[in-house]
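User: Here's a chain of 122 residues. Predict its fold as tokens.
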Amino acid sequence: QVQLAETGGGLVQAGGSLRLSCAASGRILSINVMEWYRQAPGKQRELVASINSEGSTKYTDPVKGRFSISRDNAKNTMYLQMNALKAEDTAVYYCYAIGRSPDYPLSSFQYWGQGTQVTVSS
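Assistant: Prediction complete.
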């Protein structure tokens, strides 16, 4: 079993910054991809940023130049530095991980965190 725990959400004024963290724990052999998603009220969950085990990153267009994704492989932890926040960034942010467990090394696992609320006031 693998658990993902997000921290760092909160209320911030437009133009401000927040840093989200996602720590993975449990029976982990390796984590290949870690991603941040967000879901605003009444909208579908969308991919915000992605990072693989080699550090290659991707971002959705609305956050390019403002958000930065990173990870610490030794700690199985991923981060999302969010700068120049806008009201439209308000959402619940979820982390997602694809990896392998030592119990089933030939199969991959996929887990979601419980989400953390980010609210940007204008």
